[in-house]
């Protein structure tokens, strides 16, 4: 049974812009958009993505990241998604959001189909209203009074509700899709339409014709005439249409769709009933994993439960259609759940036929947690021994490491910019420096974990201690820097933290061998799994959502990477800096001999580093002096491109290119020069345009220098020293996990101390709080006790 419900697009969108053609293939005449014309709308707050959509149907997608290539998509809306909580009427706001997302994907050139519930609920609302109205009129006539008694509403038969609600439901969809200039067509089916070969061909042809004309088919079981579902009625190899789950699966396979999205009122599949303490969402479900799932009761409305959804999903997967089951009712995610799934984000449960070779990232997180706790219980000497062994392996296995790094460099040639290639490159000297740094970390780790910071006698025989402990599980995400891996691993080992590492694919060969060496070192004390390298196709944004497994995220890479992670992290603190806009102020009393050396080293020694100089502030009195000329000549020799700040440009007849922004991190041989009148103006400029990373004053006046050191509010503030000293190794920390511009917990180069937190230990003898009340027998002493001296050897 096919009924056509379609109207032309709203006048404000396309009526005056596009030619419309008269449809001759449908039962009603209507105006439809030509299939050759695709317009990308700008009306939505959902981001558009541009991806190739051509794909040969046959096998389902193996990984979530491939879902962005899906062209033909079926979205199944469960009864719990479409209906209100009282099961009488539709959830209009939720439905409007779903229509918007479907419209976004349709306008990207995809072919969208909806399988929707809701007719029964919509009809129930209408019939209840009619019954109440009828009863109230009769009662008013019989009683002769305005006042109404309580009226009992009879149980409404589902088929009657469906008959009353079907037209209204479709009219609602029509009105919503019209807002986006998209036509919709209604198709009602029963099980017989799939079992009768002629009807199947007719249905298939109708659906293909609608998709060809850029129309969204809205499919539903004809609940007004459909017989009750029969248990175990599936034919061999064919799923029987007895609810909208099986209908969606059957439709997806018949139409050779790429993706089936099943929206319900739960997040996906769980290994235990949702809501129970031990329940964990199953990210990827494989055929044969049914034994790992405990099925609960069915949805509060509708005919199918989760078991029916899994059965339908597996049948569709076998037919070559990828499937995701997700929550379409949660107010925080329902507004973008469909587009998130298509973009490959970790939403709901993804059904895949391809099992990964190694553990999932969730399993790696659990291994890192368990391994980290074992690591924290080792003696300090044992942790130091692991780090010493890793340092030895870096030099002993030098040839294998450099060979792997050579493969990375060859594959990156032509794809990465020169500064990134330099970061990617390893050398013998780099490995030797790494080994030295690791030995420094081993030496400083002797009393890091479990060190007593404070002791207090609360009362007689009641003593309190504050001691250092590991943070937990760290996630370190780094780009193009394989030398970062052993540094961070050593700091995690020294501090007793579990560690998840996510490196860039451009350094995959180098990271792999360095991680193997790290695990070899950990194995000497049986804690191999404490450090994990994430090699799956996990997107960084998905990793940032693992708030139950990760305690701290540390990004190492470009400012854009750091900003993206800070934005994506959900409930997990991020330690790092988004920008390294470092300043150097050259005072009027600066030494001529020192200035050029400091500027050259800060800018030219490694311009891609986050602690490289980006803005040079020069006191106005130095303009047109030999010192100023020497600075400019040196920068010219070093081939540094100069950008003039507004004040500096005003002093010049022929100035360099004026800076577009005074808040720029160049990361290359480029430098902004600006003029200031005093040290106070330099400080004000730094506070306005800097990133609180590293700032320097060059002067021979000690009073001016101290004023600068005390008043500049940055993580690192130097006097007559290069900005490049802002580094954990150069500070004597052995290494660093990054440089933090945060004001909480750790700031500046973050070494071993920054990866520790504290806990309180209270030792008593049957003490209770009531003993310290006004009429109690004990009094608080709160005496400070001596703290054991720290071993500084």
From TrEMBL:
<dbReference type="InterPro" id="IPR005766">
    <property type="entry name" value="P5_carboxy_syn"/>
</dbReference>
<dbReference type="GO" id="GO:0005524">
    <property type="term" value="F:ATP binding"/>
</dbReference>
<comment type="similarity">
    <text>In the C-terminal section; belongs to the gamma-glutamyl phosphate reductase family.</text>
</comment>
<keyword id="KW-0418">Kinase</keyword>
<keyword id="KW-0521">NADP</keyword>
<keyword id="KW-0560">Oxidoreductase</keyword>
<comment type="pathway">
    <text>Amino-acid biosynthesis; L-proline biosynthesis; L-glutamate 5-semialdehyde from L-glutamate: step 2/2.</text>
</comment>
<dbReference type="InterPro" id="IPR016162">
    <property type="entry name" value="Ald_DH_N"/>
</dbReference>
<keyword id="KW-0641">Proline biosynthesis</keyword>
<feature type="domain" description="Aldehyde dehydrogenase">
    <location>
        <begin position="361"/>
        <end position="622"/>
    </location>
</feature>
<comment type="similarity">
    <text>In the N-terminal section; belongs to the glutamate 5-kinase family.</text>
</comment>
<comment type="subunit">
    <text>Can form homodimers/multimers.</text>
</comment>
<keyword id="KW-0496">Mitochondrion</keyword>
<dbReference type="Pfam" id="PF00696">
    <property type="entry name" value="AA_kinase"/>
</dbReference>
<dbReference type="InterPro" id="IPR036393">
    <property type="entry name" value="AceGlu_kinase-like_sf"/>
</dbReference>
<dbReference type="InterPro" id="IPR001057">
    <property type="entry name" value="Glu/AcGlu_kinase"/>
</dbReference>
<feature type="domain" description="Aspartate/glutamate/uridylate kinase">
    <location>
        <begin position="71"/>
        <end position="327"/>
    </location>
</feature>
<comment type="pathway">
    <text>Amino-acid biosynthesis; L-proline biosynthesis; L-glutamate 5-semialdehyde from L-glutamate: step 1/2.</text>
</comment>
<dbReference type="InterPro" id="IPR020593">
    <property type="entry name" value="G-glutamylP_reductase_CS"/>
</dbReference>
<keyword id="KW-0028">Amino-acid biosynthesis</keyword>
<keyword id="KW-0808">Transferase</keyword>
<dbReference type="InterPro" id="IPR016163">
    <property type="entry name" value="Ald_DH_C"/>
</dbReference>
<dbReference type="InterPro" id="IPR016161">
    <property type="entry name" value="Ald_DH/histidinol_DH"/>
</dbReference>
<dbReference type="InterPro" id="IPR015590">
    <property type="entry name" value="Aldehyde_DH_dom"/>
</dbReference>
<keyword id="KW-0511">Multifunctional enzyme</keyword>
<dbReference type="GO" id="GO:0004349">
    <property type="term" value="F:glutamate 5-kinase activity"/>
</dbReference>
<dbReference type="InterPro" id="IPR019797">
    <property type="entry name" value="Glutamate_5-kinase_CS"/>
</dbReference>
<dbReference type="InterPro" id="IPR000965">
    <property type="entry name" value="GPR_dom"/>
</dbReference>
<dbReference type="GO" id="GO:0004350">
    <property type="term" value="F:glutamate-5-semialdehyde dehydrogenase activity"/>
</dbReference>
<dbReference type="GO" id="GO:0055129">
    <property type="term" value="P:L-proline biosynthetic process"/>
</dbReference>
<dbReference type="InterPro" id="IPR001048">
    <property type="entry name" value="Asp/Glu/Uridylate_kinase"/>
</dbReference>
<dbReference type="GO" id="GO:0005759">
    <property type="term" value="C:mitochondrial matrix"/>
</dbReference>
<protein>
    <recommendedName>
        <fullName>Delta-1-pyrroline-5-carboxylate synthase</fullName>
        <ecNumber>2.7.2.11</ecNumber>
        <ecNumber>1.2.1.41</ecNumber>
    </recommendedName>
</protein>
<dbReference type="InterPro" id="IPR041744">
    <property type="entry name" value="G5K_ProBA"/>
</dbReference>
<keyword id="KW-0067">ATP-binding</keyword>
<comment type="function">
    <text>Bifunctional enzyme that converts glutamate to glutamate 5-semialdehyde, an intermediate in the biosynthesis of proline, ornithine and arginine.</text>
</comment>
<dbReference type="InterPro" id="IPR005715">
    <property type="entry name" value="Glu_5kinase/COase_Synthase"/>
</dbReference>
<dbReference type="Pfam" id="PF00171">
    <property type="entry name" value="Aldedh"/>
</dbReference>
<keyword id="KW-0547">Nucleotide-binding</keyword>
